[in-house]
What we know:
about 20% strand; 8-stranded parallel β-sheet; Immunoglobulin-like; Oligo-1,6-glucosidase, domain 2; binds alpha-D-glucopyranose; globular
Amino acid sequence: MGAFGGASVYQVYIKSFSDGHGSGIGDILGIIHKLDYLKFLGITHLWITPFYVSPEIDNGYDVTDYTSINPKYGTMEDFDLLIQEARKRGIGVILDMVFNHTSTQHPWFQKALSGDTYYQQYYFFRKGKQPGVPPTNWSSKFGGSAWKYVPALDKWYLHLFSEGQADLNWDNQDVRKAIQSVLSFWEQKQVAGFRFDVINLVSKPELFTDDQNGDGRSCYTDGPHIHEYIRELVETCGLKNYLTVGEMSSTHLKDCISYASLTGNELSMVFSFQHLKVDYADGDKWRIQKFQPSELFSIIDMWQRGMQEGNAWNTLFWSNHDQPRVVSRFGDEGEYWKQSAKSLAAMMYLLRGTPFIYQGEELGMTNAHFSTLSSYRDIESIKAYDILTSQGNTAKNALEVLSQRSRDNSRTPMQWDSTPHAGFSTGNPWIAINPNHAWINAEGEKKDPDSILWWYKRLLLLRAQSATIQYGTYKRLDPTNPSVFLYQRIGKEDTFTIICNCTKNYATFQLPSPLKGNVILANYLNPQKTGLLRPYECLVVREKKGAHHATLS
Ligand code: GLC
């Protein structure tokens, strides 16, 4: 598949980005109003989370009509205008396609429920093991069983996510055809690409059996026909020239090399999440463990090397609408807020792959840290609270976990300015705005050349202008350093050395030979030349081939 080293994607969580109508909910018109901001930032593509007709049990990841726009987000005319206006600014639009499941309110599922056997084959309806016992012991990703009983049919249906999201049966060719026609519809609208939601979960096993060791994921992740189904989709819909990115749940490097091989026929790139599980105790998102920078470095290095050696392409990302804010998670919300946000950005976005920047990350937006359950809107978070308290945690403890892990931490409205509604909406926002918009906001940062926003702009400009950053070889240096992530991007004309202290302590690093070249980016004044880095200090040094540089030592 085509390589996208020169692309930089910005993720818009539509509900919280910009409200053009004053309803308190972001919409397509609001996105159009902010296209000049996105152009200023220097992105090439915009990924918009689902805005299709949906009961919004899971904020649009539960679709009832894949080719119509939910009126609260706008009209098809608004969408056509968005495509045109984005194109004028050199920005391509990427749509979010949720094909592992539909809403249970989708007409297909409703027909299935009313006894239509043709549509029952669109989903997985199975008899229980015995009365009252679901077909397998699998858990839903949002807690509880992955099966829901339908008394009228005396069968259970599979829902890997909420009860309102029934899994589609991709083994049924008619389902795959229906999905292909949805893609063709949007291709005619001149979109630039697609993000496929949890795409590696769509090929279910032939036989549904209990998972002896876990929650079921080993039974349905990267399933038996997954590569075949993706190839078929790409081939029948002519997706080769589109930017296609698959969200891969609990996947493996080996599969990702096939999903995103540069010489293959599957996707342009993948989202893999291993680096974002580094602070889960025993892989459990709701059990907090302090993260070790060295572990984070090893995982990132493993994927960089693996995808490079496998000639495959990865995405580069720290956060999205399902993750907490990166500066709160791996950086510092206090004294080193700015330095840590910059160091983390340089560490990630100069790697080999395509950057995906989640809205507000470029401002250093922080977790919401809600202190009451009633502030939460996310179905997963509310269920997690119930599960945590039923397991004996106090309400206070459960809220503390949510304040670090809830998806709502990153779903608060975009902070455009310091006015009461942060410039997001003239109406009452659907979820509370972070009070720190008084000092963390786009308007203020745009005026300040030392801001996080300008740092992101510079990083993206560097990527856009440098073939080495886009396609150069990745190599890690000083691999046993516990605090500093240090790597090179090596190209024909130059070599970049990226040095990032990821701790709030002073740290040293070691290089095989003295560092030559010019410091082209640094997040402190007078970058150190002694190998002693200040808290969260980072430097980017460029050495041109054949140039006579002074040694930095
Ligand atoms: C993906 C989405 C997430 C959603 C889930 C189910 O992980 O990013 O927001 O809840 O799929 O569609």
